[in-house]
Design goal:
Helices cover 32% and strands 17% of the residues. By secondary structure, the chain is α/β, with parallel strands linked by helices. The chain has one domain: Rossmann fold, CATH 3.40.50. Helix 4 runs parallel beside helix 6. It is found in: Cytoplasm; Nucleus. Pathway: tRNA modification; 5-methoxycarbonylmethyl-2-thiouridine-tRNA biosynthesis. Keywords: Cytoplasm, Nucleus, tRNA processing.
């Protein structure tokens, strides 16, 4: 299953799509793509962090209904209204298949101030989506580090989930250079994920690669790497699959997926592999003398007996046996050296 099929499938196998951003790499290009496609499904977009104009490419799209909560901020809006009950009523009023998009869940949690209340609201919203047709889906956008993320990805919240985690290409370049672990198929799957997962989960390391003294900064990048994690999907025969995890590139300008080998930002990895695979030069060439043996010379060399000092001695001596070749300077006397002593 590809990244694009997880975003644009008319009949997704999971009712929950989680888009995960970080300080070093945003997943907003994926969110914009998800909003712009699947036009046959009614979309309810609830904005809490980003302006609707920055998320909806076509403001006149008839299938996108925007609900702007940017001005509904506790302590600044008087009176402030809790949006939980209002969002549930809006979703309940939709009779057909619907795609509910919330940006972002972390802002929703900060406004409410209660993790348990936010979790109950999301559970109720997930129950409404799951009760509808397969075309219905809940899209949540989170920004790591996130307090609500551990409960969203748990099986108690949803047994099936598609999780798209955005990473900067510099992370893969770092692993290939410092840890000698390029992405598959250049490295074994088990080895790569064993190195990639713990490093990618330490956000501070990735932020240092991007915003450190030798980092490239947050501007000017037109590509990103997407970690796709699918749990509880079904195959073509309808059987439920185990967890599937893979990496795929994303062209931000063209809004389309890429193979890792097609990404311009990862070209050094594949060039380095091509150099390693080149045949090593023959050391016997371009020299002033001949280092090779003719067939007759090889036959003569094979007939030469190899010297062996202990001829006739069993090749496997008894345990504890000592083999000693006396040297010409050794003074070996079999007589008792103490026979002149009156003992």
């Amino acid at each position: 299953m590809s990244l694009l099929s997880n975003l644009d499938s008319p009949h997704p196998t999971q009712h929950l799509l989680l888009l995960q951003s970080s300080i070093s790499q945003s997943s907003l290009p994926l969110l914009r793509h998800a909003i712009a496609h699947r036009n046959s499904v009614k979309k309810l977009l609830f904005c809490f962090l980003y302006s609707p104009s920055g998320l909806v490419g076509n403001p006149t799209a008839s299938n996108v209904q925007v609900h702007d909560y940017l001005d509904n901020v506790p302590g600044f809006t008087n009176p402030w209204s809790d949006p939980f009950s209002e969002i549930l009523k809006i979703v309940e009023a939709e009779p057909a298949a619907v795609e509910v998009i919330i940006d972002s869940v972390d802002t929703l949690l900060e406004d409410n101030g209660s993790t348990s209340e936010t979790y109950k609201f999301l559970r109720s919203l997930m129950a409404l989506i799951s009760a509808r047709s397969k075309s219905s889906r809940l899209i949540l956008h989170v920004c790591t580090p996130s307090k609500i993320l551990p409960v969203i990805v748990s099986t108690a919240f949803s047994s099936s989930i598609t999780q798209l985690i955005a990473h900067p290409p510099a992370l893969l370049l770092h692993l290939a250079t410092e840890y000698m672990t390029p992405p598959p198929p250049l490295s074994p799957e088990a080895k790569f994920w064993g190195v990639f997962i713990p490093i990618s989960e330490r956000g501070r390391d990735t932020e240092t690669l991007i915003f450190g003294q030798a980092g490239e900064g947050s501007g000017g990048r037109s590509e990103m790497v997407v970690e796709v994690l699918v749990r509880g999907g079904t195959d073509t025969s309808g059987r439920r699959k185990a967890v599937e995890r893979f990496l795929e590139g994303w062209d931000i300008d063209k809004s389309q997926p890429l193979k890792l080998s097609q990404m311009n930002s990862l070209t050094p990895i594949w060039q380095r592999k091509a150099v390693v695979e080149e045949a090593a030069p023959d050391p016997t060439q371009n020299v002033s003398f001949n280092l090779n043996l003719t067939p007759s010379q090889q036959e003569s060399r094979a007939r030469v007996p190899l010297p062996y000092a202990h001829e006739g001695v069993p090749s496997a001596p008894a345990p504890g046996a000592i083999l000693y070749d006396p040297d010409s300077a050794d003074d070996i006397d079999d007589d008792d050296p103490d026979e002149d002593l009156d003992i």
